[in-house]
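[Automated response] Your request has been received and processed.

Submitted sequence:
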Amino acid sequence: MKKLFITALVFFASQQLFAQVEITPYYGWLWTGSVPMYNGYPPYYSSQNAKVDDKANYGVRLGVKLPSLMVAEFEWNHTNTNFIYRDYDGNKQSIPVSANYYLLGGMRELNEGEQLVPFGIFNIGLVNFKNTEDNYSLNMFTIGFGGGIKYFFNDQIGIRLQARLLAPMQYGGISIGCGIGTGGGGCGTGVSTYSSLIQGDFTGGIVLKIGQ
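Generated structure:
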């Protein structure tokens, strides 16, 4: 995962020799839904929903200007959160989780050379979930789509506001939930889930333009 990040970063950064580059550090809020959890034995009834805490997130985007109002982007996004569930005895359990998203994507701007620039985005990549207590980690495929606006104060500096959905987050076995908590064994209670978890974030950041 780190090699992928470094390779993409070097590639995108090198493009400033030939095109305009946008660097956008940002901060925001990542929200999630819940997933139904099932016991591990017939009749596999759903006993509850498990919840991933809504938490702050931050990261950086590196974009290269392309023809036809397109911008190619690489993004790293990080958050620390908790996976919360109840065991068979009804006791509330919490697993600390660190999440890192590594995304490639494209931005389609709706105008060019204006102070206010609306845009739409599409991302595709991987997310790595890691239990911060025992270092067990899990990689998953993810896609994202959304939109926002950029507002430029001058030719080099502006702000970027964005809303996005990250979907689907497919969890196999016990997924990030209980599997991370036990090194892949399943919460110590036999609970498992195969449901999708829709995520989304709202972010704001500073846009720095480099090159021509």
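Summary generated for your ticket: The chain has one domain: 2-210. The domain at 2-210 is CATH 2.40.160.20 (Porin).
If you did not submit this request, please reply to this message.
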